[in-house]
UniProtKB/TrEMBL annotation:
Record-linked InterPro entries: Mem_transp_PIN-like, Na+/solute_symporter_sf
Residue ranges crossing the lipid bilayer per the database entry: 6-23, 35-53, 65-85, 92-115, 121-142, 154-173, 179-202, 223-241, 247-266, 278-297
Family membership: Belongs to the auxin efflux carrier (TC 2.A.69) family.
Source organism of this protein record: Corynebacterium striatum
Keyword set includes Thylakoid: no
Protein name per UniProt: Permease
Annotated localization: Cell membrane
Pfam families linked to this entry: Mem_trans
Length: 299
C-alpha cells in the first residue's frame, strides 16, 4: 500500500503548494489561477493523454473490468441526475461527473500497480473516460445546445489526443523519441497545474463553505465513495464474474473523483464548487474506503 499512500501524498502536497502560493499572493487573482486550467486543458493534458494511451494495450479496452466500470459510471451518474435534474444541464453534468468520473491516472495507476498488482486497467479506463464521457460533460458545460456541445466535446484537444493515442497503440506504431520526449515533458505539467489551481481556489473558500451547493456535494461524494463501489460489486455479482475481476472493478470504482472534473468546471466556469469540493473530500476519504474493501475481500 506504500505506493498508494505515496500517490495520495503527492496530490495533497501539490494542492498545498497551490494554496500557499495563493495565500502569499504569488497567485493574486482568479484569472491568474485559471490560466493553469486553460494551459492544462488545451496543451498539457492532451499531451499526457496521447503519450499514455499510445503506450497502452488496446486489447484491454473492452475487458470485463472496463465494461463494469462503464456501466457503474453510467448508473451512478444517472442516479445523481435523477435527484438534481431541476438544477440545469451544466450543473447536473458537473455534479454527475463528480459522482462517477474517477481519478484513473495519478491515483488510478499506483492503485492498479500496488493494490491490484497489475497496471492493465488504468490506461484503458483513461481512454474510455475520454471517448465516452468527456464529450458529454464538455458538451453540457460549454455548448449552446447539447448536440452542438457534444460535437465540440468530441473535437476538444483531450478527446482528439486520446483517439490519436489509441490509433498509435492499435496499429503498434512506435513514435520516435525526439517526437515523444517533448510530448511527455509537456504532459508531465498537466497534473501539477491542475492541482495547484485547485489548491489556490481553496484559499478563498474552504470545502462545503457554499451552503447552496452543499447538498449536491454531499450526494456526489456519497455516490463516489460508497454508491459506485456497491454498484460495481452488484454488476459483477449479476454477471457471475470471478473474485479477482470483481475486486479489481470495485477497487477502481472506489477511486476519488478526478481532478479533471474540476478542470472542466473551472475552464468553463460552471458549477465549480460541487466539482472542487467533491474532488477535495473524496481524495482524503477514498483511501480508508479502499482499505475497507481490501479487508472485506481478504486481500
Amino acid at each position: 500500500m506504500l505506493g498508494v499512500i505515496t500517490g495520495f501524498a503527492i496530490i495533497l502536497s501539490v494542492i498545498f503548494i497551490g494554496w500557499l502560493l495563493a495565500a502569499r499572493k504569488v497567485i493574486k487573482s482568479d484569472s491568474e489561477r485559471l490560466m493553469f486550467n486553460r494551459v492544462a486543458f488545451y496543451a498539457a493534458t492532451p499531451a499526457l493523454l496521447f503519450s499514455s494511451v499510445a503506450k497502452s494495450d488496446p486489447g484491454t479496452v473492452l475487458s470485463p473490468v472496463i465494461l463494469v466500470i462503464i456501466a457503474a459510471t453510467a448508473i451512478v451518474a444517472a442516479i445523481y441526475a435523477t435527484v438534481f435534474w431541476r438544477n440545469g444541464v451544466a450543473e447536473v453534468a458537473s455534479g454527475a461527473a463528480a459522482a462517477s468520473y474517477f481519478n484513473s491516472v495519478n491515483i488510478g495507476l499506483p492503485v492498479s500497480i500496488y493494490v491490484l498488482g497489475d497496471s492493465t486497467y488504468a490506461i484503458p479506463v483513461v481512454f474510455i473516460q475520454m471517448a465516452l464521457f468527456t464529450p458529454l460533460i464538455l458538451g453540457a458545460l460549454g455548448g449552446n445546445s447539447l448536440l452542438s456541445g457534444i460535437k465540440t466535446g468530441l473535437l476538444s484537444p483531450m478527446v482528439v489526443a486520446s483517439f490519436l493515442g489509441f490509433i498509435v497503440a492499435w496499429q503498434g506504431w512506435t513514435i520516435p523519441e525526439p517526437v515523444m520526449a517533448p510530448i511527455e515533458l509537456l504532459g508531465g505539467a498537466s497534473i501539477p497545474m491542475i492541482l495547484m489551481s485547485f489548491g489556490a481556489s481553496l484559499s478563498t473558500s474552504g470545502a462545503l463553505s457554499d451552503k447552496e451547493s452543499r447538498p449536491q456535494t454531499l450526494l456526489a461524494t456519497s455516490l463516489k465513495l460508497i454508491g459506485m463501489p456497491i454498484v460495481a460489486f452488484l454488476i459483477c455479482l449479476a454477471a457471475g464474474l470471478d473474485e479477482d475481476t470483481t475486486y479489481a472493478a470495485v477497487i477502481l470504482a472506489a477511486l476519488p473523483t478526478a481532478q479533471q472534473v474540476y478542470n472542466y468546471a473551472a475552464t468553463f466556469q460552471r458549477a465549480t464548487n460541487v466539482a472542487r469540493d467533491t474532488v477535495f473530500i473524496t481524495t482524503f476519504a477514498s483511501l480508508p474506503v479502499m482499505l475497507v474493501i481490501a479487508l472485506l475481500f481478504g486481500r
